[in-house]
Write a structure and sequence with these properties.
elongated; five-stranded mixed sheet; alpha+beta
């Protein structure tokens, strides 16, 4: 059995990581062995995850295999989106401009701020009493 060629991309968002393999054959999207619809149940997160395929008009013409872990479903959807976009660029570098103008190649670097000592949370201080 011959192994077919795939194109790879890694996406990260908050503490979620998605490793994406894109095959140049028509097929479906699977995440951790499940279909995308079974893995991500919220419709807006699902739309965000497959946005690179919609922007490049490749929805249904590629087989996408994703391994995702860490974080929550929202972060994983963002990581999947970035991973698919990077894999599509490896597949066809001419699509970079369309993905870049749609803002799909920018890593969303926002993460939870760490708690500081002497405070209740990252910035919330204990209540101050004057008397």
């Amino acid at each position: 059995m011959t192994q077919e060629k795939y194109y790879y991309g890694t996406g990260r968002r908050k503490s979620a990581i998605a490793r994406v393999r894109v095959f140049n054959t028509p097929g479906s999207i699977t995440v951790n062995g499940k279909s995308l619809e079974d893995f991500i149940t919220v419709d807006s997160w699902k739309q965000h995850a497959i946005r690179p395929l919609v922007v490049t008009d490749m929805e249904g013409s590629l087989t996408v295999n994703i391994k995702s872990h860490g974080g929550g479903l929202s972060g994983q959807a963002g990581a999947i989106s970035l991973g698919i976009a990077r894999a599509i660029i490896n597949l066809d570098p001419n699509l970079r401009k369309a993905l870049k103008s749609a803002g799909l190649l920018t890593r969303d670097s926002r993460v939870k701020e760490s708690k500081k000592y002497g405070l209740k949370r990252a910035r919330k201080a204990p209540q101050y009493t004057k008397r």
